[in-house]
Specification:
By secondary structure, the chain is an alpha/beta fold. Helices cover 47% and strands 21% of the residues. The strands form five sheets. An eight-stranded mixed β-barrel has the order 18-19-21-22-23-24-25-26, surrounded by four helices.
């Protein structure tokens, strides 16, 4: 069975690539390495994979250094290597390719593209091994032959020709002067002649005219270095004028004295697979009606444009376009007319786009227009006016005429936002206001700043009054032991009971409270109230219950959090071991001495510390070693789809294993079904929390639930 070696210093990435590699074919063998040196030691000891997948950026040794060391090992000159990297610069690709990389994939990797390219390289490796095996068999037969040297040589030549003719690849050899020494039957078939007719001719006839000079350079490089040239793709034209794509390798041809006398070229036809890849990639990235990029492609381009703009101080505008009254065309003329209108609208938008701009269809009647701003081109408002005018021009179908307007929301980078998600939100918000104003017009995101400021001012006033009037209440969501089914604690969750609006969801006021600093007094009240309630439970005899309270990153910036915890514990006389403080990855991302010191002081009190929403941030797992953590909480976004989505399940299992290996308790949030609970229990999660066990509820309901049921049944 084929063996794939996967090298990545991130455990999660290794598991994802392991799952992808396993799907290539049944029985695939996979070895995982987190350290380049360990991988090289295994290879030197005799482990020989058929394909190597390596990350580019790794500590101690990057992908380029690893590949150079790999190619220096005996027998590893021809093993294909795929390099995975987030770098977009051409220099990184060239360095990796010069070091001996076979293929290159951009991260985040498209799963189907990874599988397809890996399958191609495994097939090439299989053919290489087949050719090598057959050559070895032939060599053994020649060595054991007792016939005369002349007869043996004649026989070996005939046998070698037969062997090479059976290989499903074009194989040819040329001497140091570029004259063809040998060509197998596939070469003759491709060029419409007998292989013997090619012998003695220049090897230039084996490539297209524009490849003659590069092909000579490659042959000279192989002859001078004596090294196998890494596989590369190139396009050749056959006798019928058809273009075909080949995965090509070149290796030195040596005589009996081990002197290089020529170059052997083998080329595997991968045209069909390339076309399948291109078709699949096109289907994934383009809208089938207009042939414009789709939402996924636009989001990817927008992220890349943000990254490029950051490096080059470059500005751009995002136009979110909605066709007004598009439904009327479908209703009056039918869906064929609707599709024809969308195609026409796409053509009109593309006619306005500059060479660096991008137009995409992102919804039924929604388009996005990414406009790179330059001194010589139109401004964002000018472009928006042109779009309104272009879409509003009459549309004719089957002798009938109709017209639709366009509502457009425009946002600017970097003035309005500096991340792709916020830019999309800004453009859609401006679009809504354009439609609310009657449509067939555009709105800039800046025009809404005054209204948002007024709304923020009103909310700020309401929040201050809510603090003064004690309008906040705490609800409690049960936390259940996975092993016993017993309720072992609760997470305190904030609710705002407004006299005017009733219960207000946290998402409506907490983000603003973070921005204006009101979160500091609010969370101080939450901590004090939660500790008071927990102490009340203990007086009722529920001494086993533990209280979890969320802390905000703003608190660490503005107050002495350790002193605040000491104050709450002293005022309520709560046992510190019954308090758990939940922090987010944003807090540990700061990695400041002040934050570490504050958390250590809290831990020294006996209070446990949890990382909430684990896995959703961008921090390195290294912080786990630096901070005094006791628990990690797997975010509900992974739990929600883990039954249906193997990737999410793999992440959950990986996080659970990581937590246990570090001696941490693993808590799963958002558990809503028995199927999820079963998988989480099997994966080793210690504590469950979610609607399956109870929604957030007032304190009285929570204590009643605990008293009425000393054990919650968990399905095995």
């Amino acid at each position: 069975m084929p063996l794939i070696a996967i090298l990545d210093d991130q455990e999660t990435n290794r598991r994802i690539f392991e799952r992808l590699a396993s799907s290539i074919e049944d029985g695939m063998m996979i070895r995982l390495f987190g350290d380049p040196s360990a991988a090289l030691q295994e290879f030197e000891a005799g482990l020989t994979p058929d394909l190597i997948v390596t990350d580019y950026k790794m500590p101690v040794m990057d992908g380029e250094g690893f590949i150079r060391s790999l190619r220096g090992l005996p027998g590893f000159a021809e093993i294909p290597v795929i390099v995975i990297t987030v770098y977009e610069e051409r220099s990184f690709r060239m360095r990796a390719l010069e070091a001996g990389a076979t293929d290159f994939l951009q991260s985040p990797v498209d799963h189907q593209e990874f599988v397809t390219r890996a399958r191609n390289l495994l097939k090439l490796r299989k053919q290489q091994l087949l050719l090598e095996s057959r050559a070895q068999v032939l060599a053994k037969e020649l060595a054991s032959s007792e016939e005369s040297r002349e007869a043996a040589l004649r026989d070996s030549s005939e046998r070698l020709a037969q062997v090479i003719d059976t290989v499903p690849a074009m194989v040819s050899a040329s001497d140091l002067d570029g004259r063809i020494l040998f060509a197998n039957q596939l070469v003759g078939d491709f060029f419409g002649c007998k292989p013997s007719d090619l012998v003695g001719k220049s090897s230039d006839v084996l490539v297209d005219a524009d490849l003659v000079a590069p092909n000579r350079l490659l042959d000279r490089k192989v002859a001078r270095s004596g090294q196998v040239l890494s596989s590369f793709e190139r396009e050749l034209t056959n006798a019928a004028g058809e273009k075909r794509v080949f995965l090509t390798t070149k290796s030195p041809l040596r005589d009996s004295a081990d002197v290089i006398v020529g170059v052997v070229t083998s080329a595997l036809d991968i045209t069909d697979r390339k076309r399948a890849e291109e078709h699949l990639l096109h289907a994934l990235q383009y809208d089938p009606v207009t042939n414009l990029p789709n939402r996924n492609y636009m989001q990817d381009r927008l992220r890349r444009e943000v990254a490029r703009a950051r490096r080059g101080d470059r500005a751009f505008a995002l136009h979110s376009i909605d066709i007004d009254e598009f439904k009327s065309i479908n209703e009056l003329f039918g869906h064929d007319a609707g599709d024809a209108f969308l195609k026409e609208a796409a053509q009109r938008l593309q006619a306005l786009a500059g060479p660096e701009d991008m137009v995409a269809r992102v919804g039924a009647d929604d388009f996005s227009f990414l406009q790179v701003l330059s001194g010589s081109g139109p401004s964002a408002p000018d472009m928006a006016e042109r779009i309104v005018e272009a879409i509003g021009a009459p549309f004719r179908f089957a002798g009938k005429e109709a017209s639709c307007g366009a509502s457009i929301g425009v946002t600017l980078y970097p003035i309005d936002a500096k991340d792709s998600d916020r830019l999309v939100q800004n453009a859609e918000l401006a679009l809504k206001q354009a439609k609310a104003g009657g449509g067939n017009q555009f709105r800039l995101f800046e025009t809404n700043m005054a209204e948002r400021t007024r709304n923020h001012a009103a909310l700020d006033s309401q929040l201050r009054q809510a603090v003064e009037r004690n309008e906040f209440v705490l609800f409690y969501q049960p936390q259940v032991s996975a092993s016993t089914g017993q309720i072992i604690g609760a997470e305190a969750l904030l609710r705002w009971r407004s006299p005017e609006r009733g219960f207000v969801a946290p998402g409506e006021f907490l983000p603003r409270a973070e921005e204006n600093g009101m979160i500091v007094p609010i969370n101080e009240w939450v901590l004090m109230e939660a500790c008071r309630e927990a102490k009340a439970w203990h007086r009722m005899g529920l001494c086993h219950l533990k209280m979890s309270v969320n802390l905000s990153p703003i608190q660490f910036q503005r107050v002495n959090v350790a002193a605040l915890v000491v104050k709450a514990l002293a005022a309520t006389e709560l046992d510190p071991r019954c308090l758990d403080l939940e922090i987010t990855e944003n807090i540990v991302l700061e990695d400041s001495e002040a934050v570490i010191a504050a958390l250590q002081q809290i831990a020294d009190l006996g209070v446990s510390i949890s990382v909430d929403d684990f896995g959703t941030g961008y921090s390195s797992l290294n912080y786990i070693k630096k901070f005094p953590l006791d628990r990690i909480k797997i975010d509900q976004c992974f739990v929600r789809n883990m039954v249906e989505n193997p990737s999410d399940h793999t992440i959950v299992r990986t996080v659970a294993n990581l937590g246990h290996s570090l001696g941490l308790t693993v808590v799963a949030e958002g558990v809503e079904t028995e199927a999820q609970a079963d998988l989480l229990k099997a994966d080793g999660c210690d504590v469950m929390q979610g609607y399956l066990y109870g929604k957030p509820m007032p304190a009285q309901e929570f204590t009643a639930l605990v008293s009425a049921s000393a054990r919650i049944g968990l399905t095995a």
